[in-house]
Amino acid sequence: MSSPRLLIVTGMSGAGKTQAVQKLEDLGYFCVDNLPPTLIPKFAELVSQSNGKIDKVALVVDIRGGAFFNQVNEVLNELSQQGYQYEIMFLEASDESLVRRYKESRRRHPLDNHGEVLAVIREERELLREIRGRADKIIDTTNLSNSQLKEQIFAEYGGEREERNRLLITVISFGYKYGIPLDSDLVIDVRFLPNPHYIPELRCLTGNDEPVQRHVLSQDVTQEFMAKLIDFVTFLVPHYQNEGKATLMIAIGCTGGMHRSVTLANKLGDILKDKGYRCNVRHRDIMRV
């Protein structure tokens, strides 16, 4: 009998844990919100004794637990010593995004006793630093809609166990002027390639459009670079898999995130899929002006 899948959901207040848990419930997870960390080993024991009736569990643990939360890392060590396997999903967002969300929702931050939202967000980030370092999956929701977050949750935690155990590769295009994606594993800078932005008939198109793709991919420097990039990525992926890595995010950036990075992200995604890898492609900044 396979052991239940135990997922610890944590992260910054306001980063989307509620939406993540809703999607996990849709995927059949038994979800418990704001569980005191000291109860996690006992809960894991009860689930293991359910004779397979509960095979997927998600436990939300965060700073709402107050003083109890300080024990979380000690409890996770105890859980490992007892032979329980677990994963940690950590949700985060930029300070600016979290401040805006609290202003829009008019909700009070769990640590806020003096009305200074930015100060308590930074305090919380420091409190979560250690558990963030232990996370198996970090999701930055700064620029994600609720539907995009749910897509990521499904891609990572949905499907059959055999599929889940295969490395999931995400190729994401972005614009450097909007910042590097915080949850990237590999960052590839393609600003050295000829820029379609300076060609009037291509400026308003994107890397999803065939004229831009033809222009970018027809360059000798692009073809040479793609050959080297494919060799590099296909060399790394088996080694990541051997180390037990569950996800790999490859971020490809150009200046605005519309032309070169989109074209190359699509191309790399297609090649990885043709090679049999689980891969999805996202374009973070394609619609920004």
UniProtKB/TrEMBL annotation:
It comes from the Bacteria. InterPro entries: P-loop_NTPase, RapZ-like, RapZ-like_N, RapZ_C. Signal peptide: none annotated. ATP binds at residues 11-18. Residues 6-160 form the RapZ-like N-terminal domain. GO terms for molecular function: ATP binding; GTP binding. Residues 168-286 form the RapZ C-terminal domain. Keywords: ATP-binding, GTP-binding, Nucleotide-binding. GTP binds at residues 62-65. PANTHER family: RNASE ADAPTER PROTEIN RAPZ. This is RNase adaptor protein RapZ. It comes from Desulforamulus ferrireducens.
